Amino acid sequence: MIESKLPRVGTTIFTRMSALATQCDALNLSQGFPDFDAPTALLEAMARHVMAGHNQYAPMPGVLALRDQLAAQVALYRGVTCDPETEITVVPGATEGIFCAVMACVHPGDEVLVFDPCYDSYEPAIELAGGRAVHLPLTEHSFAIDWERVASCITARTRLIIINSPHNPSGSTLSSEDLLQLRDLAETHNLLIISDEVYEHLVFDGQQHHSVLQVPGLRERSFALYSFGKTFSVTGWKTGYCIAPPALTAELRKVHQFVAFVAVTPIQHALADFMRDEPGYPATLGSFYQRKRDIFCEALADSRFAISPSAGTYFQLLDYCAITTESDTVLCERWTKDLGIASIPISVFYQSPPEQEYHLRFCFAKSDEVLLRAAEILCGI
Ligand SMILES: Cc1ncc(COP(=O)(O)O)c(C=O)c1O
User: Fold this and answer.
1) If I label 213, which of 161, 187, 308, 339 is the partner at 20 to 30 A Cα–Cα?
2) For the whole prediction, is pTM greater than 0.85?
């Protein structure tokens, strides 16, 4: 009846593990969402704008009041200016923004470099655009980019590089030196960049987030993607934004206007109000999530897992090689069913996982009580 355009794509691991967690009544540390609510003022603003009648289509690039707040936030947190009219587009989730950015710049036959373990939405978008994802592994243990290897994989067909920092699933971050290496390669080979920065405010231990927006030479050739869902604990609102120079933004909007056309109106007004009233809110997230990471890791100190504390995101990898050498996909399912704790296997984020890949990903955007209960189960293994 229909020839699949994505024959190798099934249901995402997040959907499968969350469904299994529900079915088994397990603690769900698999999918990346908080089990606590967003700030009350934001929820109230949402209700207010729905009741005030902000329920029809927003302008295609987003409600201007929100784009103004975003420009102010980028100036405050990253020290760079961007034009709300020509450089900021509000989208229904970073996933849609990434999809539109890929569609806007990948032509049939183009190669796109991605780094494994790789967030699962990139490759299907590349394939639908007629391109080919070229997978490069991050280094073992530290999950860093090997820039010499990147340089050796660039061909005349390479069009785009997709980076993600802070990185899901490993929790590693890119340094300013990494971005300079990227800039040199991108300039030499005239490449475009998609920079997935949805966890930009979730960085720990006194580190700063380094954005492509801050690097002259990269800024001009990059789509930077963000998610309100991650920053304001409203993943179900599926709202994000893209910042890119005017020429790239114009192409992204051409696609966006025929994929979704607009993001949800009252959500945009609510976010604009909240950002205007609480500009310092994102700055609180680093210490908030660092505390959660530390509660989880400290409660696991006597476990048999090897732990290297996450540098960013709300994910913690646990290395189980001292416990078993079973495959992570089998183990994940078994522990969800038998022990009542759900996580995510990271081998599924690789084209070809390393032979000895023994990591599971746990989301620590959970109440302290859930984190302690999870650690208790894991300590018993
Ligand atoms: C690395 C990464 N990029 C993009 C997204 C998608 O963000 P959104 O929910 O705004 O589409 C996620 C969500 O988990 C993510 O982890």
Assistant:
1) 308
2) yes
